[in-house]
Design brief:
The complex is a heterodimer. Chain A is mostly beta strands. Chain A is built from 15 helices and 51 strands. Chain A is globular and about 110 Å long. Chain B is globular. The chains are: A mainly beta, B mainly alpha.
């Protein structure tokens, strides 16, 4: 056999370097896995069948796999869609191609078989579900899936989450807490908020291996075949506790049996720019606004009329330098006398930056062995001008499957990724790098940066740029080995062992930053001591499972039973050290060049889960469908005796279109299925590890004794020995229909998910306790929602097109919670997630008389004047207050809005004409209220403190005697600022948006042209991400990143990206 | 057969990989557990270490003037804007941040477990004393803010009935604090411990005197008001204060710092700006800084450079006597207040060691004077301004090394012996049993150090400007001495509260600063009163401070806590 094989491949393949590579790899793999293969005798009576395979528009299809099911021989079509294969009369040839319907043709007398393949019939579509696949038509739980190549196509994005945002109804993808930082991970949520304290994270599995939102980032999007999302308990039940809030199954590409080796190279070049940069006021506008704040607070103006005139002169170009010597001849104008006009955001962010991506993959298969290899490089330059802000990634991915003999298959997969992220350190002692966003937002435009000789004046703003950076290297290797046993037909058992090792190496340099001041003094604006911290961590995770599946059909009765065992073990440890006092300037980052006293730190942790699960599926003629699933789960997070939970589910489906009486309608209604499910799952989070243990925190104090920092041991918290699983139960009702010859595919479902035994505090107790009461299981949390998706696909003449729309919504409410206080800002029964309490705004007081006759507002400030906000006396008691902030007595507060993103929707449009394709993907949120708190300087402009204001153009529209119809109230420079900036209807922002996530125009060169240069397919495209956004939100915020770790809007913005790319298949 | 092989293969694999004893028993192991702790004396030391952050001090890398800026909540300093509480602008939320019992719980945990230590009590009792001291310290903070509150001396659980205790009467709380300190005094070692970086018996004595004087004078001066304690005039606590301070004086362990008296006459100034007080007999407890250990502050970037948005008030400056022991109203030595030199000439030397005068070096490198003070920073950005023209000098150190960011290592006393002398004099005076001999071992020691004439009970000069005209001349003079000796060290606000003194010094009054000389500041825009004195709050407080006397002596109990515990009652004036 081996000999035959070699001969065969040598004959078929050209001696390009890639094919050589493919040959040798295949050969090695054959050696490894095929030793027990037995050769198949070749029937002498065979003849050679020739033919051509096209799509329905008669375009030749290269790469179609053709298998002779009798002889097991296989081949694939060439560039012209032509093939030849040995067969004898009566053999069955199966033609298959990704995204196309399989076709079986029985060989007759003719030696020519031409055929055309149709796009996949969706009725036959197979979807990846828990521990296997299932025909979509037979699914009774709530599952959505997307085939990346087919639905999304080549979109050159940095990560998979960006790619599928808006494509899967019920899966909400947003920016994480780091915004658009290169390499940052996204937040993923299935069906809205899961639990209050138990997390909401879905269980993410990549080829069956547990992953995380962060690790999804490390995947190469081009390696992804499809993504399934299991949304209800019935679908996710088999994953037990981790699947409580849904499961995301990511499958990477594999080879196909008998598929001719195919090498694909793709490359793209991208230019990115910030979606939103705050639009700041110029120097004169800034100075007048600040002065108004001071004057309104009965303080003296900060900027004199003379200085403001200078600002104007500088703006007008009448003054050349941004600073000059002050009257005393020693100092440069700055601070109070500064007249510069610096646009600090431009000084920190580049206009546009480049990203490049290269990807090479090889996939194919022989009779018994299939393989997929890929390698990719992604390089992203960050938006910041300093700190070497970059993100680079290398991926290698390989999967090989082979049949050892007729009852034993092996599967071997290996994934490797290396990510490198560089980022500035921040420059400010005691703060994270994120302090930067805060510093830029509040810098005064009037401050000059340099004197005419280039000496630094505003070192505060410059401190970030040269104060070192951090470099994080993350290596993830993922190895998986599986044996699949099928001793008798219908009974297969998969034994699988997977191991993931994640290593991180973190180097952070925090540098002293000496800048020369005017007059020649040199001062350190960076960290007080140059320090270098080096740490490394390793997480090892093992997953072992045995899943046995038995399938049997007796007439029209179809059975399937699954029995499985699984355990997971996670162990992590880290070690690091830090030192100061370097012999030479820190050019070589090495602790050994330091003289200071090194400090070292480490950590160690471990957790395990274990479970047994089973599933029984039955259907009658794919018409009546029934499924039961159950899983017993144990977790090391809880104390002994509280570790195990049992979680069952059941679901039913009814395929009406299969009924005989439906026959006359089947031309219009191709399928119509109603399904219902109910089930429960356990939930927990690793945040609750050790809650049953009385642990004493340790640390090093800042107090010195004997000239050394003291060590400290703190007090333990109150333990929770009875803490156990949250129980998440979901009822789901769905209807799926395919209409008009499968041109219209639609699905609608509603659900009610209830979390009981919610993790929460025991009833609030007086502060006198001196610590938080223990976490216990209490309360009930409910999330109700719906999802709807509709897709239309058709042709007009030679133009094929598709239109898709999906929308999902959910609303969460606490049904029961141990909290009698009724405090409106606390978790309590009846609290709807995201509710914003605030005042109703009457308007802005225009006269003192209005103030004097209005209900008194002295609860919040003794002084009210024209230009201040008038709140509405909702309870009519003649005064404005918040009562006791409770449900019973909340004074004049009411629920003014809701901060949750509601009605998340996605729109997808596509059209194809000959080789030209146009795809548009849009994503939006139809309802969301954003409340910018008193401290949000990027919204209000002012924040009651000279150093915390961000005077934007938008914030200039504030009340003054000359501008009585202003949007914003009178600004203040003191705490009085908070009286006008309370949560209230007037300033509640509409956070709804519609964003054109991607527009792509591509051109595929006709096959007959490119085959001459030895290429199977060649495609060019241009693509634009985030180019258009429709929203009425304040212009200084991106609707997708309104949060920020140091205040709303103080975050790395998302990017608009323009790309060009090429994809080449050999 | 094949089937059998497969089944055994599957089960064997499952067994080998899956069945491990205690697979799910994976506790957190890289932390200390309660069961492994409380074994040795060292454990007690490590635990009690956590409380050392309690004191007013500079925290690492802090950008402020530390204790020398704290008097903005009193009539000693004026900030950029008026203090909310002094101006009656405190709200019902004012006490929200202070109503904390976490530290008290932590000290109670110590009390519950320390006896598990396997050692003789005598070997570790010092740490028990430290923990008792801290419990007293945290309870005293609550007493100062709220008066009465539920006094807790055990580790409560979340279902304890005692969580719903009513407020413990303030005098009972005070007595409990005194009792804890009695034990702390008997357990702790005598003498400066670790060079004054750890607590000692004497510190507990001083603190006991402080608490007792506080409660004694509070009960005496608030008697008959909504804040008083029915049936008490405070004399029991005044006795305790007297005894504790007297015992400390008699012990002889501490003395006033006199280093610098003979040569430069600046022993007082040098008590506040040194990096090492281990040999200083007056400074009983202090926090050490060390740049190498990344423990340094930025105070000298303000104290020896600008006003930091604060300024010493005319009221404080005017309280300093002249060198003849007479007040400025009557002393012939007083030169008036036309400028900083005049105002300080012939005055109590502590004045020129508390505010900056022209010619005093502000920046010195290895003994070379780089710059000297010329004018207060009246014309500067708000955060650096000197609001009154009298710029804070106490605590400053002109050494230029300390001005580099995060390089200041000067410390400030946390407890200093001088306080014992003043407590002794005040307690005895309030008890009416003071003698000249008492004054001579207390206040007159402070006067001796700075070269001021003695306070003589029988020849007190009549001062038409006494702040408390209805109190005795001696009480007035002792309070003056307290104010002057502890000027801008953060004690004044508490003194005004316990003396019920806002009616005398703040209500309806605007703080003033120095006489303004426009020629010195051609471009400054400064608000002045009718007599040409700087009046920083002229426009902000047209009718002076509006401290609400039947309300603002205590903070409001957080509303939410009253909701949770209906047995709690609200403080006077805050009831809705």
């Amino acid at each position: 056999m081996r000999k035959n094989y070699k001969k065969c491949t040598e004959k078929k393949l050209l001696s390009t370097s890639i094919t050589k590579l493919r040959t040798s790899i295949s050969f090695i793999l054959m050696l490894l896995f095929c030793s027990s293969m037995s050769a198949n005798a070749i029937n002498e009576q065979q003849k050679i069948i020739k033919g051509k395979v096209t799509d329905t528009s008669l375009q030749p299809l290269p790469g179609v796999t053709i298998i002779n099911t009798t002889s097991k021989a296989g081949t694939s079509t060439d560039f012209n869609g032509e093939y030849n294969i040995k067969a004898k009369k009566g053999d069955i040839l199966v033609f298959s191609y990704v995204g196309m319907e399989k076709q079986s043709i029985t060989v007759e007398d003719s030696i020519t078989i031409n055929t055309s393949l149709k796009d996949s019939n969706t009725l036959e579509e197979v979807v990846v579900v828990g521990y296997g696949t299932q025909k979509k038509i037979n699914i009774t739980g709530s599952v959505v899936s997307v085939n990346v190549d087919k639905v999304i196509g080549d979109r050159p994005v940095a990560n998979i989450a960006t790619l599928i945002q808006g494509s899967l109804p019920g899966l909400t993808i947003g920016y994480g807490s780091s915004g658009g930082e290169p390499g940052s991970s996204n937040s993923l949520q299935i069906r809205g908020i899961g639990s209050i304290n138990g997390g909401s994270a879905p269980y993410i599995l990549v080829d069956g291996f547990p992953s995380s939102a962060g690790e999804l980032n490390s995947l190469n999007p081009e390696d992804i075949e499809d993504i399934s999302v299991l949304k209800d308990a019935a679908a996710a039940a088999i994953y037990g506790s981790k699947g409580a809030f849904g499961v995301i199954l990511v499958s990477t590409k594999t080879g196909k049996k008998g598929m001719k080796a195919q090498a694909t190279y793709s490359s793209s070049y991208q230019l990115a720019t910030n979606t939103v940069t705050p639009n700041m006021a110029n120097s004169v506008e800034f100075a007048n606004s600040i002065n108004d704040g001071f004057l309104n607070s009965n303080l003296q103006a900060r900027f004199s009329a003379e200085t403001i005139q200078k600002m104007q002169d500088y703006l007008d170009g009448k003054i050349e330098n941004e600073t000059e010597l002050t009257a005393n001849g020693k100092n440069w104008t700055a601070g109070k006398t500064g007249y510069a006009n610096n646009r600090w955001f431009s000084r920190f962010y580049k206009d546009n930056v480049a990203r490049t991506k290269h990807n090479l993959s090889i996939r194919g298969g022989e009779k018994k062995t299939t393989y997929f290899f890929s390698g990719s490089i992604f390089e992203q330059e960050g938006q910041l001008r300093y700190g070497d802000d970059t993100y680079d990634r290398i991926n290698v991915n390989s999967t090989v499957k082979t049949e050892a003999n007729n009852w034993l298959d092996f599967e071997l997969a290996f994934k490797y990724s290396k990510e490198t992220t560089l980022f500035g350190s921040g420059g400010l002692n005691g703060y994270s790098k994120n302090i930067l966003y805060h510093q830029i937002a509040r810098a005064h435009p009037t401050n000059p940066l340099f004197d005419p000789e280039g000496n630094v004046i505003d070192g505060g703003v410059l401190r970030a740029t040269k104060s070192g950076n951090g470099k994080l290297d993350e290596y993830i290797t993922n190895f998986s080995f599986a044996a699949i046993l099928e001793p008798i037909k219908g009974w297969s058992t998969k034994i699988r062992y997977q191991k993931k090792t994640k290593s991180t190496y973190n180097n952070i340099a925090r540098l002293e930053n000496y800048l020369t001041l005017p007059g020649g003094d040199v001062r350190n604006f960076g960290y007080s001591n140059t320090s270098f911290t080096k740490s490394s961590g390793i997480t090892e995770e093992e997953l072992f499972n045995v899943v046995s599946t038995y399938k049997k059909s007796i007439k029209k009765h179809n059975f399937k039973a699954i029995l499985g065992y699984e355990h997971r073990r996670n162990e992590y440890q880290s070690v690091g050290a830090s030192n100061t006092d370097f012999i030479a300037p820190l050019t070589i980052p090495a602790l050994r060049t330091a003289l200071g006293d090194a400090t070292a730190f480490d950590s160690f942790g471990q957790w395990t889960t274990q479970g047994v699960f089973s599933s029984v599926q039955y259907n009658y003629d794919e018409k009546y469908l029934l499924e039961f699933k159950a899983r017993s789960d144990g977790s090391s997070i809880f104390s002994n005796g509280k570790r195990w939970g049992f979680f069952p589910s059941a679901s039913i489906g009814y395929n009406i279109a299969k009924e005989d009486f439906f026959e006359p309608l089947t031309n219009i209604v191709n399928s119509l299925k109603i399904r219902a499910s109910y089930g429960s799952l356990g939930n927990h989070t690793r945040d609750h590890a050790g809650y049953y243990q009385q642990l004493l925190p340790q640390g090093r104090g800042t107090w010195l004794v004997d000239g050394k920092r003291i060590n400290i041991v703190g007090a333990p918290r109150i333990v929770s020995p009875t803490l156990t699983w949250e129980t998440v139960s979901t009822a789901n009702l769905g209807i799926d229909a395919n209409l008009f010859n499968n041109k219209l595919i639609t699905s609608f479902e509603v659900y009610d998910r209830r979390v009981s035994d919610l993790f929460g505090n025991s009833n609030p107790v007086p502060n006198v306790l001196g610590t938080n009461p223990p976490t216990v299981n209490n309360g009930v949390f409910s999330t109700k929602g719906f999802e709807f998706a509709i897709n239309w696909q058709d042709k007009i003449g030679k133009v094929s097109y598709n239109v898709g729309f999906n929308v999902a919504d959910s609303k969460s409410e606490i049904i029961k919670f141990n909290n009698d206080s009724g405090n409106i800002y606390q978790n309590r029964a009846g609290r709807v997630s995201g509710d914003i309490w605030g005042f109703e705004t009457v308007g802005i007081f225009q006269t003192q008389e209005e103030v004097d006759t209005a209900p008194v507002q002295t609860r919040y400030s003794p002084r009210w004047r024209p230009g201040d906000i008038q709140y509405k006396d909702l309870n009519g008691d003649g005064k404005i207050d918040h009562g006791t902030n409770t449900e019973e007595d909340h004074g004049d507060l009411k629920i003014i809005g809701n901060s949750r993103a509601r009605y998340n929707y996605g729109i997808r449009l596509g059209a194809k004409f000959k080789g030209i394709g146009l795809n548009i993907a849009m994503q939006g949120v139809a309802k969301r209220d954003v409340n910018f708190g008193s401290g949000t300087n990027l919204f209000w402009g002012h924040r009651g403190n000279l150093w915390q204001n961000s005077i934007t153009k938008a914030s200039l529209d504030y009340w003054s005697p000359e501008n009585t119809s202003a949007y914003f109230p009178k600004p203040y420079m003191k705490r009085e600022h908070t009286k006008n900036t309370k949560a209230q209807t007037r300033y509640l922002q509409n956070g709804a948006y519609l964003r054109v996530k991607n527009i792509q125009l591509s051109y595929t060169i006709p096959a007959n042209i490119i085959t001459k240069i030895g290429v199977t397919s060649l495609r060019f495209y241009i693509s634009a991400d985030n180019m258009l956004t429709f929203t009425s939100l304040n212009e200084n915020f991106d609707p997708e990143t309104t949060a920020g770790q140091l205040g709303q809007g103080k975050i790395y913005p998302p990017s608009k990206v323009l790309s060009t790319g090429i994809k080449l298949t050999f | 057969m094949k089937l059998l092989k497969i089944i055994s293969f599957v089960f064997l694999t499952t067994f080998i990989v899956g069945c491990e004893d205690d697979f799910l028993d994976k506790p957190i192991v890289d932390r200390l557990e309660q069961a492994n702790f409380w074994k040795t004396k060292t454990d007690l030391e490590l635990y009690v270490n956590q409380f050392y952050g309690a004191f007013p001090q500079w925290y690492n890398n802090q950008y402020n003037g530390g204790i020398y800026w704290q008097d903005v909540n009193s009539d000693n300093l004026a900030g950029i804007t008026a203090n909310n509480r002094l101006n009656g602008e405190a709200t019902i939320d004012s006490g929200n941040g202070a109503w904390g019992f976490g530290s008290i719980r932590r000290t109670n945990i110590f009390m519950k477990y320390y006896e598990n230590v396997d050692d003789d009590f005598d070997n570790y009792k010092h740490y028990v004393g430290e923990a008792l001291f801290f419990r007293a310290y945290y309870n005293f903070n609550l007493l100062k803010n709220f008066g009465a509150f539920p006094y807790i001396d055990k580790v409560l659980t979340e279902v304890d009935e005692e969580l719903y205790s009513p407020r413990t009467e303030r005098n009972v709380v005070a007595q409990n604090i005194i009792n804890d300190l009695d034990d702390a005094i008997s357990y702790m070692k005598s003498g400066k411990q670790k060079g004054g970086n750890r607590l000692s018996k004497e510190i507990a004595l001083l603190f006991q005197a402080r608490v007792a004087l506080y409660e004694g004078t509070w009960e005496k001066y608030h008697a008959g008001t909504v804040f008083g304690v029915t049936g008490s005039n405070g004399s029991a606590f005044l006795e305790i204060a007297k005894n504790a301070s007297h015992n400390l004086i008699l012990s002889g362990v501490h003395q006033l710092n006199t280093e610098g008296v003979a040569t430069e006459g600046t022993a007082y100034y040098k008590t506040f700006n040194q990096s090492d007080y281990s040999g200083n007999k007056e400074v009983m407890l202090w926090k050490k800084f060390d740049k190498e250990l990344d423990q340094a502050h930025n105070a000298q970037r303000y104290l020896s450079r600008n006003g930091g948005g604060r300024g010493v008030t005319k009221s404080l400056v005017d309280d300093y006597l002249c060198m003849d022991g007479k007040p400025i109203a009557t002393s012939p030595l007083y030169l008036g207040d036309a400028n900083l030199i005049d105002v300080t000439t012939n005055r109590d030397p502590r004045l020129s060691q508390t505010i900056w005068l022209p010619g005093q070096p502000t920046d010195v490198t290895n003994g070379t004077v780089n710059s000297s003070f010329t004018l207060p920073s009246l014309d500067d950005i708000p955060e650096q301004i000197c609001t009154t023209g009298y710029q804070i000098r106490k605590g400053s150190n002109p050494n230029s090394d300390f001005k580099v960011i995060r390089s200041g290592t000067t410390s400030s006393p946390i407890f200093r012996y001088a306080e014992a002398l003043l407590i002794f004099a005040e307690a005895k005076a309030e008890l009416g049993s003071i003698t000249q001999a008492d004054l001579d071992i207390s206040i007159n020691k402070l006067r001796d150090r700075v070269g001021m004439p003695h306070l003589n009970m029988n020849t007190i000069e009549n001062d038409p400007n006494w702040l408390y005209p209805d109190l005795s001349p001696l009480i007035n003079e002792i309070r003056r001495e307290t104010r002057v000796e502890f000027a801008v060290e953060g004690y004044r606000a508490t003194d005004l509260m316990r003396w019920n003194a806002h009616s005398y010094v703040t209500v309806g009054k605007q703080p003033l600063g120095a006489k303004f000389n426009p020629a010195d500041f051609p471009s400054a825009t400064v608000q002045l009163d009718a007599n040409g004195y700087i009046s920083p709050y002229k426009s902000e407080l047209p009718s002076g401070f509006e401290f609400v006397q039947n309300r603002d002596y205590l903070l409001a109990i957080p509303e939410y806590q009253i909701e949770l515990n209906s047995n709690l009652t609200q403080n006077p004036g805050w009831e809705q």
